[in-house]
Design brief:
There is one protein chain. The chain is 38% helix and 19% strand. The chain is built from 12 helices and 16 strands. It has helices at residues 35-48, 63-72, 117-131, 146-149, 153-161, 165-174, 188-197, 217-226, 254-270, 274-283, 298-308, 314-322, and strands at residues 6-8, 15-17, 19-22, 52-54, 81-86, 88-92, 99-100, 103-104, 109-113, 138-142, 180-185, 202-206, 229-233, 246-247, 250-251, 288-294. α7 links the parallel β11 (180-185) and β12 (202-206). α1 packs across α2, α1 (35-48) runs parallel beside α11 (298-308) and α9 runs antiparallel to α12. The longest helix is centred in the C-terminal third of the chain and has 17 residues, at 254-270. The radius of gyration is 19 Å and the shape is globular.
Length: 341
């Protein structure tokens, strides 16, 4: 697979590169990242043929959108696909601290969850200003779900359904201000719920369809049947599949570490880098239109590209299935190709 290979949404005129650049690090996620480092990551991605970029107002409390907009608008508009998100309104606030929500030196705009019609329209307009872009390609509803909001989930879900949030997305699509709409979430169940409420086109699912987790496989199969694309993020499961011992941003439990051990053994036997397997696996499902990976600088981006493009023998996937590490029903053949519709 090549990072520059294309997959097209079945029902919308949007074509994603097989790998995308996730731009949370442009917002100083976990540590300060100088602008030049972020620019290096962007330029390395561009030089490799990546033409899909994802950001959000939340990343760095608007810093990521501002940085990415400055970089990407140096290129012709029809050369790339960009997604951003709604669901939080960013309000000016001079009490924002030195570190908030894992972002270092966030800008003085505090997020407020709001999925209502007016809030989505306001958030979208603000993003257009920060990006310097008339019409972003894809708009995701960011971080909705029962695990995310707990007892407040129904309140926020009602804002989307009864309060006009989904209607706002549909109107923006009809007006041609975005080409495709969907969710950007960590919870696969809420994507299924959204498909019952709104004609979504594509959704970003972080950390839930990986070498370590395939509970969402039935959802991805359903999305493929319905022509809804999936962008996979978090393929390294908080870095666990890239060499650390964190899982969902906490210390990994023993059963997960045991599964990682099985993957490491298969990688050693087959001559496959674990990071390469982690990036390749979700891309093999026919619903997946892109695998988004973050990078803080050019070196990280080049490493991600190298892993993604590493050839992986079919025997590797067979070995993992035989060990029960990945689902017997998981897609492990076919590679990246253009998705017509």
């Amino acid at each position: 697979m090549k990072v520059s290979d294309r997959r097209r949404l079945r029902n919308r005129d949007v074509s994603f590169t097989a790998m995308g650049l996730g731009c949370a690090q442009m917002g100083n996620l976990y540590r300060l990242t100088p602008y030049q480092e972020s620019l290096g990551a962007f330029e390395a991605a561009w030089d490799a043929g990546i033409r899909y970029f994802d950001t959000a107002p939340f990343y760095g409390y608007t810093r990521s959108e501002r940085r990415l907009g400055t970089m990407v608008t140096d290129h012709e508009r029809d050369e790339y696909v960009l997604s951003t998100k709604v669901g939080r309104v960013m309000l000016p606030d001079n009490t924002v601290g030195a570190e908030e929500d894992a972002f270092v030196a966030p800008l003085p705009f505090r997020p407020k969850y709001d999925y209502s019609y007016d809030a989505i329209m306001r958030s979208f307009e603000d993003s257009r200003q920060r990006l310097g872009m008339f019409a972003p390609d894809v708009l995701f509803v960011h971080d909705i779900g029962r695990s995310t909001h707990g007892d407040l989930h129904q309140h926020y879900w009602d804002q989307l359904t009864k309060g006009g949030g989904f209607r706002a997305l549909g109107e923006l699509r009809v007006a041609g201000l975005v080409k495709a709409i969907g969710l950007g979430v960590n919870e696969w169940q809420v994507i299924a719920d959204a498909m019952d409420e709104c004609d979504i086109d594509v959704s970003m699912l972080a950390g839930r369809y990986t070498l370590l987790e395939q509970e969402s496989l039935a959802l991805l199969d359903h999305c493929h049947r319905e022509g809804v694309g999936i962008v996979v993020a978090g393929a390294f499961n908080s870095g666990l599949l890239a060499g650390n011992r964190k899982f969902n941003y906490a210390e990994a439990p023993a059963d997960i570490l045991a599964r990682v051990g099985e993957i490491e053994a298969a990688c050693e036997a087959e001559g496959v880098a674990m990071q390469a397997a982690a990036l390749a696996f979700p891309a093999l499902h026919p619903a997946v239109v892109s695998v988004v990976s973050g990078a803080r600088n050019a070196e990280q981006m080049k490493a991600n590209v190298g892993w993604f493009e590493q050839a992986i023998p079919a025997s590797f996937w067979t070995r993992l299935k035989d060990k029960g590490v990945i689902s017997a029903d998981a897609s492990v053949a076919g590679g990246i190709s253009v998705r017509g519709g």
